[in-house]
Structures are given as structure tokens and as C-alpha cells.
Amino acid sequence: MTELPPFFETWFAARGWTVYPHQRQMLDRAAEPATLLIAPTGGGKTLAGFLPSLVELASGAHQGLHTLYVSPLKALAADIRRNLTMPVEEMGLPIRVEDRTGDTTYTAKRRQRADPPHILLTTPESLALLTSYEDAPRIFAGLQRVIVDEIHALADSKRGDQLMLALSRLERLAPGLRRIGLSATVDDPQAIARTLARHPDPCPILSANPGPDPNIEMLGTQGRPPWSGGGAKYAVHEVLEQVKKHRTTLIFHNTRAQAEIFFHHLWLANEDALPIGIHHGSLSRDQRERVEAAMVAGQLRAIVCTGSLDLGIDWGDVDLVIQIGAPKNVKRLVQRIGRANHRYNAPSRALLVPANRFEVVECVAALEAAREHALDGEPRGPGPLDVLCQHILIRACAGPFEADALFAEVRTVGAYAGLSRAAFDDCLSFCATGGYAFRAYDKWQRLKQTDGTWHLRDPRAVKRIRMNIGTIQDADLLKVRIRRGNRVLGEVEEAFAASLTPGDRFLIGGEVVRYEGLKELTVEVSRTPGREPKVAVFSGMKFATSTQLSARILRLLNQDSWPNLPDHTAEWLALQGEVSRMPSARRLLVETFPHEGREHLCLYGFAGQNAHRTLGLILTQRMEAAGLSPLGFVVTDCALLIWGLEHVADPAALLDPSDMRNGLDQWLQGNAVMKRTFRGVATIAGLIERNIPGPRKTGRQATFSSDILYDTLAKYEPDHLLMRITRDEALRGLVDFGRIEDMLARIEGIDHVRLTRVSPLAAPLFLEPGKVPITGEGRERLLEAEAARQMAEAGLGAL
Amino acid sequence: MSLQGLDRNAKSAPTSFHALDFNGAHLHARADGSLFWPDRGLLCVSDLHLGKSERMARRGGGLLPPYEVQETLARLDKAIAETCPAQVVCLGDSFDDLDAAMGLAEGARLHLARMQAGRDWVWIEGNHDPGPIDLGGSHVGELTVGPLTFRHIATADIAEVSGHYHPKARIPGAGPARPCFLVDRARLILPAFGAYTGGLHATRPVLETLIARDGIAVLTGSRAIPVPLSALGRARG
Question: Which of A439, A460, A468, A704 to mutate to test the interface with B (most CBs of B within 10 A)?
């Protein structure tokens, strides 16, 4: 048991603070190999995590790196540095605290490697990079503690897997390392504890008092939510009213594009010129830092933001959280609400604003779940092998290694505890030779084995591998800069930039800018205040509504009446009941109707958008085979709408589960979702390099699409390691076939309703973006017809 | 509009083509990305980039699926079987570099030799493969046949057939970009035929300068589809 030194008590008392019980408990357990602390925001969680380190370092006896703090956000590392510096300075502790992220300068990084601080604050990617250096054993030799902050956000992702693999390496360099995980409220703390601890060490869980229940409500509005879309422009005035009534408001959005649009409308309506900022991952670092600094200084009344503010930067004075758009999952909603009121023991206040009519239902369902503490979560599978491949390459950068030792080390990671030697060897062989059945690279192996140890054949490869460390998949981004100025406004996806014509207007950082041209690899713009923008398309994670929340929505729809819903929504649902039927959990509702010269089929699966997209692809393929000439489909979390040339008389025949499973493998092969998943897997595993040494080339004919590699493997070696990883991941993730199976198992029968026109529930689907065209025989003919028409129109018969 | 049709010599699914009148030559821009000149029995392919994966591996990069030579040669074999050419012209960048040409596996060499048997085979120099190679066929900087000149990179010359740029194009609203031929009155640019090749969008400035605005693109893929350049969608990377 570690005592809190008296001058710590004095310092706490001087600030009018008391030491919380869970902070003391962390000290009591300072010697445990691993501890998971679950505490609400504002509960002094971070200080609880650092307290044992500060006490251990207070004597000044420790030389070199003592504590490594890892957070999922760069901004968080910087914020924690500020927050730690205060007690360290005020108590006069002999402790050096520094952060190290992708934003740290080259010189600072070099100095840190030569002379590490006592406490180093970093991210999983920067840590992985650190472990790839040959001097890693020296840097980490004296390491005592690792604190993983916001571990709930990391544990669900490949970033967490990469981090835990890096910790297994640190454990080897600094035996006896103690681990502390800090987490917000989660559905399954045990799973997080298993992720954190060195396998098979135990990991006790400490739970702080969760504090009073939050006060969550729907925001009442004058206007009705629109039928579709994610803008919530209709609620701008009511949101502004709330901002005026509170000290500081965080306004959360699900995507960056939605945040930009809402911020734009908010700004146009902001007659009192309230200071309001915007913060999301596509904005330039400068801009994000300015907003963060203004927020910390209490200069802003509201921030429009996305998941970039989901995690624990301590804003201090936030007293209201507004969630725009359906939260998709209850756990994230609860965590976002926790961002309000960082003062422990005061209820958080939150308002939900549905962006469209269907989201009213979803918001009400989520709100009820949050009140009942019914958090949702999907169990995670074993550690992904693409991350392991990258780990092996990183390990090789640090110097020669033995396969047996590395295998043993990897198995101490919770997620990889069940890893078979065969699977490990597959990954090693992939890293060494590509792992192909056709042995082509014996001469040019990436890793070679000499006298029992593995090493890189070509030392130049170190640079290439280090440049590609990380598991975050970004689209190719281009900087946006004001023409003849130096200010970078942010970044947009290359595909979006390519769709712009000079003169087009789009939103970035809340400003409307005019596209002037592409110079080198920078998008040049000028300012055009007050004009209507064309919307910026940012990549945003597309979350599917969780299984638990979908079930709640179905229950809500099947109420006899809807006193808990606004009138406009209740009336709409009642109309659906009159015209067609209400979807239910036990019976699958399928509507078919003609509309604008096309036949439509609407299926209410409530299995989430990813599963619906898969179902759409499978069903349209089966329709194609049956000569029903499907032309396209669109999905939401609730339903799938398919259109085509022929009426589907018997939807049940299309949905036969065993036929669907049989067709799945064949279908999967040519599928765009598989190709997208493959791209991620191949990049993480090191087959494709995102970054290559030297200046980025503008001539694009040198690079080719990962789809070509996918097609080649599908044809010549469909069972290659990367294809197996892709299939497993897609089935669990974007393909989400599991939820289709669950849906088919759940339903006892199909209700096919033939209508003469669009039903009330189906109508909003027509306004959904993201329509998927089907490239069948019909589409090919339409394409030829269109090309021929344009040839004739252009008078190009003679060429 | 000239006729469209299918090459009938094929054993299995025949490859569709778009027929062009280009400087007095009747040419077939084929859906597989090759160009056939029936009157001369000449088949032309560009930018095979054989050995690309080997070159990447040699330089310490990712180890790409090593099936690209096999795949490219199989495609070429199919085009040859369908058109039975007397002469095959490889329009440059046939190899990703000269070492890749030297390092070609025995199986691939035999495959090439088999395709070369009984026909005239011309390797035109490209920027990736500027030197002589120890494979059958002649190796030249450029080649003139009747009214047409074949060279790797387009010049200011007219009646010229070239490659190098790997053009691709898309029709707005009709799916992703496909490799394409670009044709105007003066020049014809072939798409890249190799399996591991990317593309440069036809609307990129360098290609817009080379091909007149009233030219056409012939998209490749399952069918050869001609489309006016004025109808092409803007670049998408």
C-alpha cells in the first residue's frame, strides 16, 4: 500500500479538493500488475491514474522514463501535459512531463529518444514507432508504468490491438511493468480488463461512483424534422436558444459533413454573434488548437463537433451536450452525455435532436435505453492478423528476432492469447516472402532467416515500414489552402477535390470557399462569404444502429399508441399502419409498389445499414439471375429499398436462408465491400504502402488500385492469408452477415404487402443519399444507349 | 458512325471492339485494351509493365501477388488467339525495368516464345525499358507501318499511335473509371494492357492538351464503348 505523501494532501486541501475514494484505491493497488478504473468524466480519473506515478517520482530518485501514458487522441496527450504540469509545478516535484505525437517536431523527438522524460504522453501509433527503433531497449529500460486512457475507445479497434502488441514488447524490455486502464462506463468491463492485462495476469476492476443519472430530453422544436437527411437545419433556432441559456454547449454530430453544414446554418442564424466554434478531424491542426485553447479559456459558448471531441479533453465548463442525429448506439450516447458537467456529482444535461423523421423514433428509443442504463455492445473477435503482420515488421525494424520468442510474447496479449502457431507462422511467412503458393520472391524476401534469427533483407525497408505504421485508415486527403496565402484551412478527400470545377463552392471550417484550382497537391480556394455551398464530402465512420437499439425501435413501433413521440411522428406511424403494416421483430415486412416507372421492393430488416447493404447486394444478384432486372438499391439502418424493371411477385423465394448462404461465398468475391475491406487489410499488413519515401507523385499512372491485387488473388490464390483475413473481417464488419443470419433466425414469416404507391415508411428512403447502382446486363445496355446518344448528339459519327 | 462488332476468331467469349477510321487505317479498339488493324494483321498492345511486382520486391517494398506476368501474358495470348495477327507491336514499357526483363521467369519466357512463333514481333522502347532485351523479336525506338507511326510517348506528330499515359475515363453516373483509348484526328493513345497498371484520368491537363476536345474515348472492360470526350466525368483520382 502506497501512502499519499503529506504535501499531496496539502496541495489537494489548498485547492479545496478532497481525494476521491477511487483515487486512494489506485494508490493502494499501485503494485498490482494491471488495474482497470471505470469512472465517469469529471471523476478525477486521469489524476487517479497518475497518482501512483507522481508519488513514486516525488523523491527524484528515478532516472529516465518512468511512466508512459497512451491516449487515442493527440489533443488529449497535449491536454494532459497541461493538466499534469500544474500539480507538478505547484508541488515543486522533480518530474519532467512531455508529449510525443505525430505533431511533435523532429528535433523534439530526437531529443526525447536521447533523453526521455519521466512521463511521456503519446498515442498508439507514436508508441509503435518508438518500439521500432534499435535503441528501444535503452529508452524503455526503466519503465515502471503504462497508463492507457480512454481504453474503452481503443479496445474496440485495431488501434487497441496494435497498442497491446506494443505493450507486450515493452513488457519484454521492462519486466514487471504495471498497467493501468482508464475507461468510461461500458457494457462489459471484464472484456476490457482482459484486453488490458498481460495474459494470463488478473486485472481487478475498480469502479468509481458513477454519480447521479444524467438529465436527457428531446429538444422541442417549432418546425418538424424533415423526411430524410442529416442536417437538422430545422432546429437551428431552438439550439441557439439553448446555447444562450447555458454557459458552454457541445453540439455533437455523427459526421464531419453534417457538422460543417449545421455550423454554417447556426452561424447564419446567430444574430447575437455568440462565440461558437467548430472542431472535427478534417480541420487543420492550427484551427483545432485555436478552438481548443479558446474553449479552455472559456471564450466559447458552443462548439459544433464530431467524434473528435468524444474523448476526455477536460473542457471544464460544459453544462450542456446536444446530440444532433440519432446516436446509433446507446453506449456512445451515454459517453457523449458524460462530456457535460465535468464536475463530479452533478447530473449531466443533454438534449437529443433527431435530424429526420425516422430518427425521432430512434432518438426516443435511445433516450429510454440510456435512462434504463441498457448499454449495448458487440463482443469482439480474436486479435486481427493484419495488425500482427505489421507488428512483426515493426519488430524487425528494431533488430533481429527469434520467431519462438516473438510468438510467446504475442500470446501474452489478451486478444492474441488463443493465437495458434500455424496462424503466427502464416503471418511471419507473409512478412518474409508474401506467403504465396507460387514462390516468386525467394531472391527478394523482405525478411530473411540467418542462424535462427529473422532480419530485414534490405535495411532501406526500415524507412518504408516506419512511414506506414498505424492502423487508422484515412482516405487520401489533400490540404485546402487560401490562394496566395499560407493558411491551411483543413483537408478534403482527394475524390471530393477531383469532383470540383473552378467556381464550385464548399464548406470547410465553417467557411464557404470557392474552388480555384489544384496546385501541386493542394486545393486552392478563395473566400466567398454568404454564398450557398456545395457540400463537402468527408469520409466519416458509418456506424450501424446497434442490435439492441434496433430491437428497441421495433418495440416502440409496435406500441398501440405513441404518447412518447411528437404528434407529427405519431401521425406518420399511424398512417403506415393504415396504408400498409408496421414492421415487427417476428415477421419481416416486405412492401412492393410501382413508382415513377420502376418496380420497388422495400424490406424492413432492422439489421443495420451494413447488413442491409449486404442483403441488397445478395438480393439484387439473385434478382438478376431470375431476370428481374434490378437497377439499384439504397439502405438505412432500418430498411432496404430495391428498384428495377420487374415486379417481385414472391419475395420469400429470394430470402431462402440456405440459398443465401450458398450464394454468399461466390457473391463475396466480386463485391465492392470485400475490396474495400481488402484495401484496409493489405495496407495494415504492409502489402500496400500508403506513404512512400520521396515526394508524392502527381502522375497517377504509376499507382494502381488495390482492387487489381484483390482480383488477382481472387483468381490465382483465393485462400491467401490476406484473403482469409479480409473474408473474416468483412463478414463480421462491413458485410455484417451475422446480423442477416440473426434477422432470418428472428423472423417467423414474411408479410408481403403489395401496394399501388409508396408507403409512408418507405417514402423517406427515396431521399436517402448513397444509392448503389447494380452493374448487371440491364445497366450495361443503359450505359451503351447513353454513350450512343451522346455520340450522336456530339455529331461524332465519322471518327 | 462506323460499325461495331465482335472478333469472330475467338473460341470462347469473343471480345467486342469499336471500329475506327484513323488516318486511312481501319482499326479495332478492342474491349481488352488491345488495338487490331485487320488489313495489316497487326495487333498492338501498350504498357505491359511485366515484372512490376518483382521490381517492387527488389526495392524492399510490399510483396505483391506474383501472378501479374502470368495474368498479363494470358490476356495477350487471348487477344492473339482471337485476332491471329501476323505482327505484334508492344508499344513500350513492356517491362517495368530492364532488370525485370532479365529476371523474367523461365515459364514466362517460354510463354512469350510460343506466342512469338510464326509472327513478326516488335518491342518498341519505352521510358521504363529503354535498352535492348534478350528476348525474341526486334527492338526499335519507333515503327512506321503504312500511314501510321507507332511510338511510346505521343509527340507533335500526326497519324501517331502511342501509349505511356495509361488513360482511363468514366461516364458520370455509370460506375468507376475504366482504362480507355483516346482518339482524335491526329493521334490515338492506347490504354495500359498490363495487369498491374493504374490509370491517368482523360480529363487531366496533360491528356486534355494532347487530345482535341472533339475526340472520343473508347472505354474498355466487358464491352468497348465509345463516348465523346465532352461527356466524360471529371477526374476521380
Answer: A704
